UniProtKB/TrEMBL annotation:
It comes from Salinimicrobium catena. This is Ribonuclease HII. InterPro entries: RNase_HII (IPR022898), RNase_HII/HIII (IPR001352), RNase_HII/HIII_dom (IPR024567), RNaseH-like_sf (IPR012337), RNaseH_sf (IPR036397). PROSITE patterns: RNASE_H_2. It holds the Pfam family RNase_HII. It is an enzyme of class 3 (hydrolase). One of its GO terms (cellular component) is ribonuclease H2 complex.
Length: 199
């Protein structure tokens, strides 16, 4: 069972992102403030859940949360400011859009930039420790997956409905055969030969 939150503040926001390591598509962040009484035993790190369970839990989170928000940072901006800054910026936008101003921010991972003097903690593997971060991971993952499904319908040869834009062998081979699209991150190493070291 995950702990409800990291701090003793009344309105702690959990935040996480999805898609940071992908070759295509946005990086998507979510921020969630859960009520103190919130308990849902099945909520966990989104990577440990089936797609069906994530969608089921998303409905519960959205119904029971005090507030939540989602934000996408797209490829052009990722290429301009780099993926780490884009991930943090997406989290900042989410926090800004929350209807309730948080007293504390619990961040999944080990890097974050201060946001409006609100205290925060970076928690490695926080989505497997705290309910509010796990809830944010579920929202970020499901909303990004839906976006990648839409992009897949436009460019089915990259199989984004299954690989979600990650650099699988199939995805890299498709890039080699068909080239890149407007949805690819041009600052990333996209082609298979870019990863091969000369002997």
């Amino acid at each position: 069972m995950l702990k409800p939150q990291h701090s003793s503040f009344q309105f702690e926001c959990g935040t996480d992102e999805a898609g940071r390591g992908c070759l295509a598509g946005p990086v998507t962040a979510a921020a969630v403030i859960l009520p103190k009484y919130f308990r849902k035993g099945m909520i966990n790190d989104s990577k440990l859940l089936t797609p069906e369970k994530r969608l089921e839990l998303r409905e519960v989170i959205e119904k029971k949360a005090i507030c939540y928000s989602i934000h996408h940072i797209y490829m052009e901006e990722i290429d301009q400011i780099n993926i780490l800054n884009a991930s943090i910026l997406a989290m900042h936008h989410c926090i800004e859009k929350l209807e309730t101003v948080p007293d504390f921010i619990a961040v999944d991972g080990n890097r974050f930039h201060n946001y409006k003097q609100i205290p925060h903690a970076c928690i490695i593997e926080g989505d497997g420790k705290y309910l509010n971060i796990a809830a944010a991971s579920i929202l970020a993952k499901t909303y990004r997956d839906e976006l990648m499904q839409q992009m897949h319908e436009e460019y089915p040869m990259y199989n984004w409905k299954n690989n979600k834009g990650y650099g699988t062998r199939e995805h890299r081979e498709a890039i080699k055969e068909f080239g890149i699209t407007k949805y690819h991150r041009k600052s990333f190493k996209l082609f298979p030969e870019q990863l091969e070291l000369p002997l």
